[in-house]
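Hello K.,

You asked for the raw outputs rather than the summary table, so here they are, unedited. I folded two proteins back to back in the same session to keep the settings identical. This is the first:
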Amino acid sequence: MARLATGPPSVNKLHSGIENIPKKTKNLGELFNEAKKNQPFKKTRRRSKNARKILYDYRKSGVSGLYKMRDTGYTQKFCFRYVFFKENNKQSSVQRKTLRELYDAIIEKQLPLDIIDGKTFCTFIDANCNDDDYKYLIGKIWG
């Protein structure tokens, strides 16, 4: 027959006479935060979700200041940007979804459009425009 324990358990007292005091337990998140406070580290800036990267520089577009950029904010995942300098030598830019919209914005703001290489510019807009936009841009620029 088995003996049943009666009374409070005597777990807190070891054979050597030292009492085993139960400690408050902490979860892993609390331990991690304590360890992180004691470590010297520098917070890094996260890149935004709309990370932009220049895909083509102006040498590939044939126009000074015209770039094709990766931008995840657009459904097509890229946009076109025109960079120019204002009178006070501060850099500013205009960006649009298509080259046609960008050209219209440049003309509306009366910005200079310096074509460096006409052949390169024709191949650039041929690769990045549909037929109607290509005819429109060629007609407006060289028409």
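The second followed immediately with the same parameters:
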Amino acid sequence: MAKSDYFGLPYIVSVILAIIPVTSWVLGFITRFSDGKIVAGIIRLIFGWNIIWICDIILMIVSKHILRLLPV
């Protein structure tokens, strides 16, 4: 089974978690903080409930990864 971006969870579990707004918001900034991307985590914390959430759903289905706003 393919792994995806939310802590290596199975793909289908990650898609379901991405669809739920609260879990997508929480797991999005936790994932970015755990990657060591503090600024990206703060941006997700502030803006992760709107456009970023929709982009996360689309990208999780298409590429199995969440949106990377700051690639550094």
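The radius of gyration is 11 Å.

Happy to rerun anything if the numbers look odd on your end.

Regards,
P.
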